[in-house]
Specification:
It contains four helices and six strands; from the N terminus they run H-H-E-E-H-E-E-E-E-H. By secondary structure, the protein is α+β, with helices and mostly antiparallel strands. The chain has one domain: Roll (Nuclear Transport Factor 2, Chain: A), CATH 3.10.450. The protein is globular.
Amino acid sequence: MNAIKKDILDTVRRYVACAETMDFSGRKALWDADEPMPILCPEESAEPLIGWQELDAYWSHSRVIMSDLRSQATNLIVHLLSDDVALVVYDSRWIAHMAGPAHELPISADVRMNALLRKTPSGWRYFQLVEGPVDLMTMAYQAARRRASTLFPKLAGDC
């Protein structure tokens, strides 16, 4: 793997790792601060979030409604679109505990991520991120498979 792709993947991994401590300011720091119109399309949002005010409000709200968040990225693919712009596609699994006593059990989802990153003096930075959930049938299948491998670990390879 060449150094450019390694640097890009490092940025993505640092962005994903910010979930472990719910470090939304850390996530924001990995966005291109000079981008006049950053775009974030969270899977749970009916509309894209456009501009720093909307992204900041989303991250602030996320910190309030969740008590815990875990995330991982797999199957990362980098496609250089130019010397200073890259498309990164990857799969993400997140698990969150929502705040409040009514939410004892975590929620989770598997999401497809499409990120555009730009080379800046600070390194590679996001300027657009689109999350796309898998369809409901695939979600149900994946959940059943995970449950089966938990209940029957010896058969996990057969699931």
